[in-house]
Amino acid sequence: MVILADAKQNIQNEKIKEEDEEEEVKTWEELGLDPRLISALNKNGIDKPTPIQISGIPLILEGKDVVARAKTGSGKTYAYLLPLLQKLFSDTGASKKTAPSAMILVPTRELCQQACSYYISLCGYEVLSLIAACKVQLKVVQVTSSMVGKDLRAALAGPPDILVSTPACISTCLQSDALKTNSIQESLQLLVLDEADLLLSYGYEDDLKALTPHIPRRCQCLLMSATSSADVEKLKKLVLHSPVILTLSEVGDVKDEMIPKNVQQFWISCSTRDKQLYMLSLLKLELVQKKILIFVNTIDMGFRLKLFLEQFGIKTAVLNAELPQNSRLHILEEFNAGLFDYLIATDDSQMKEKEKANDDAQVTSKKSKRHPKPKLDSEFGVVRGIDFKNVYTVINFEMPLNAAGYVHRIGRTGRAYNTGASVSLVSEDEMEVFEEIKATLGEEEDDSKGSSNFIAPFPLLTKNAVESLRYRAEDVAKSVTKIAVRESRAQDLRNEILNSEKLKAHFESNPRDLGTEFYTSRRSIVTESLNLYFSFYLAEISVYCIFVLLIVGMFAKSSDLLKHDKELSRKPAPAHLRAVPEYLQDPTTQEASKIVKMARAAMGKTPSKRRPASKGKSRKSKDPLKAHSAEGAKRFGKRKGKEMGGDKKKKRTKADE
Ligand SMILES: Nc1ncnc2c1ncn2[C@@H]1O[C@H](COP(=O)(O)OP(=O)(O)OP(=O)(O)O)[C@@H](O)[C@H]1O
Q: How far out from the chain centre does Cα 650 lie?
């Protein structure tokens, strides 16, 4: 049993991993990974481990408690999931379990879904040979707080081998006895706290404190995080025993680089009023590459921006906490699949504070009692940890509240071997937080050091180009009234609820509640309709494949119903606003735009996993943001485009305390 006092004692004894020399071990084999897992990884096109995987996997396989801190997109999920699976493969299953062998706790439902899909994508390939070779039958279940008692009990019956959930849901399961405390003590071998820097800020402290007394002393605990914070320290003391601390940084850095090297950061200074104008200029003049993820701080701002852009023929979807969960996951899936290019996301961490203030105000307002606001999902979260696929550009239309928020937002691009860019629109009011962000990143003005922490002024947009669009932008902005925003938000919600209903209709023969996360992706819908709860057994796989084909067919027909970037404006977009006429175009920006298009076309040939350039040269020459400056004054980014896990990259791990 782990109690707080023990944890405090242990923390003094914790071991620290120091690896200043270049890491020798580079292949999956050398990390001691099971050949069947290696083969599954290779089939997924993942042939080399990343630095955090190189350092973390052997330690986890040895049975050590590990605290791992590494940049966003650095591959932390596989760093814990692969050794976890390997341990469960070799678990002979001689003893009869009464609770899950492993628990993965994450802050949001979206991350529950993601952790399960990582498992599926990994095991989907290899499950047949795994079963054939070693009779592995791993059952993975995700449960969240929205599930009612009987569903929770059904999901936990068995019991599953791996349980993916939020701390709040585990707490509910403990209270309702769906999870028995003595069973946890008997069965739990591995506990993972993923996105640990967020767990406490999402208000899960009490839930975790309710769980820790029941974690057996022998249970191996892993804590994964992108940033270090007081919250991570607190969790470490609460849950881990003598952990090894891994902090990944790169050789030669004066300070840890928090932003991946393959992401270029830019900023534009503009007034709050001009933000829509600048946004229009970036998108309409095609100065940023798709796919594009745009962050705003409130749902209303998301819809305001959507309506504004719509008038210029730019279609977007708005991902936010008030949408039904089915829709949210479907939006993520469609965006990841490349079905639309522009996604506006409300940053949940900013939302929580603002909406809470609004909700408090509602209590006293009679008017708002008559029109209560839709309930926001407290387990919603897309900014942190979600693996958006192939997002090239992240735009901060509104700045986050702090530097940690910035790091997580920018981390949605430049994931794995991809390159990316970010553009922050910074108003006078946001200068303070912008300065704080720069200070936290340890921005290095000296370009020659190639620091990825440097945020450069955006080089491709001239004043003339912006001013030429001002009249049109201001005219349209005026037409997007508060009422229009409110109506479009309500309309979108109605559409999405209807979508959810239509999804339900497809599966009405299914006895289970379609509101749960099992129905939220094509793959999971199929899984649930077979009542598998992510169990993979030989006989079921073939049926699974047939169902996938059927469901894909059904979705193809209903694809229009399920479109998330539908126009919401009452007035259709006027034809004359769709294109920028020749006389409004600024030649310098036009030139920049051409280069961006050329670069995109070149990159389009290698859409998903771009391998690191062997010498870094060719990518740089293709990169318009490095090669071109609209103002002609400065060249940015002498970085060599080193990429995560690239051959040339040196790394070290060091103590973080
Ligand atoms: N060894 C590898 N080679 C290539 N791609 C990888 C490798 N490991 C992971 N990836 C891919 O990198 C992407 C990012 O991985 P992951 O989501 O684990 O990052 P993360 O460190 O958890 O990021 P965050 O802190 O934002 O949650 C995923 O698409 C994953 O499939």
A: 26
Between CA 637 and CA 53 the distance in angstroms is 28
How far, in Å, CA of 257 to CA of 250, rounded?
A: 8
Q: What is the 3-class SS of 603-645, one letter each residue?
A: HHCCCCCCCCCCCCHHHHHHCHHHHCCCCCCCCCCCCCCCCCC
- For 91, other C-beta atoms within 10 Å of its C-beta total 16
Q: What is the DSSP letter of 411?
A: T
- Dist CA 409 CA 343 (whole Å): 13
Pocket of ligand 1 (CB under 6 A): 46, 48-50, 53, 70, 72-78, 226, 385, 387, 411, 415-417, 645
The predicted structure's pLDDT at residue 123: 54
pLDDT of residue 115: 65
**Residue 245 pairs with which residues in a beta bridge?**
16, 67
Secondary structure (3-state) at 378 = coil
| Amino acid of residue 452 | S
Q: Does ipTM top 0.90?
A: yes
pLDDT, position 251: 37
> What H or E segment, with its residue span, contains residue 479?
helix 463-479
Q: Are strands 652-654 and 244-249 parallel, antiparallel or unpaired?
A: antiparallel
Rounded Cα distance between 259 and 424, Å, is 14
Residue from 335, 387, 611, 647 to probe ligand 1 pocket by mutation (most atoms less than 8 Å from CB): 387
Output the residue whose Cα is nearest ligand 1's atom 4: 46
Strands (DSSP E) found in 46-101? 66-69
Ligand 1 centroid–CA 69 distance in Å is 13
Residues facing residue 394 across a β-bridge:
293, 422
pLDDT digits (tens, 9 = 90+) for 146-179: 677 777 888 888 888 888 888 888 988 888 888 8
Stretch 362-370: mean pLDDT, rounded?
Answer: 44
Q: What is the pTM of this model?
A: 0.67
Query: What element of type H or E holds 537?
Result: none
Among 23, 30, 46, residue to substitute to test ligand 1 (most atoms within 8 Å of Cβ): 46
Q: How confident is the model at residue 128 (pLDDT cuts 50, 70, 90)?
A: very low
pLDDT of 637 reads: 37
Distance from C-alpha of 91 to C-alpha of 190, rounded to nearest angstrom: 12
Q: Where are the extended beta strands (E) located within 400-478? A: 420-426, 455-457
419, 619 contact by CB (below 8 A): yes
User: What is the spatial distance between Cα 130 and Cα 278, in angstroms, rounded to a whole number?
Assistant: 53
What are the structural domains of the chain?
Answer: 28-90+97-251 (3.40.50.300), 263-353+380-491 (3.40.50.300)
pLDDT above 70 (res 353): no
**Cβ neighbour number for residue 418 with a 10 Å cutoff:** 23
Measured distance CA(611)–CA(391) in Å, rounded: 16
Q: Which pair of structure tokens corresponds to residue 196?
A: 């640990």
Q: What kind and span of H or E run contains 264? A: strand 263-269
Which tokens go with 501? 């209903």
First to last CA, the chain: 26
Nearest CA to ligand 1 atom 25: 72
CB-based contact 259:452 (threshold 8 Å): yes
pLDDT tens readout for residues 269-300 = 999 999 999 999 999 999 999 999 999 999 99
Burial 355-372 (b: 16+ CB within 10 A, else e): beeeeeebeeeeeeeeee
Give dist(CA 344, CA 391) in Å, integer. 12
**Contacts of 517 by beta carbon, 8 Å cutoff, 6+ apart:** 109, 112, 113, 142, 144, 146, 325, 329, 524
**For residue 481, which phi and psi values (nearest 5 degrees)?**
-85, 170
* CB distance 58 to 32 below 8 Å: yes
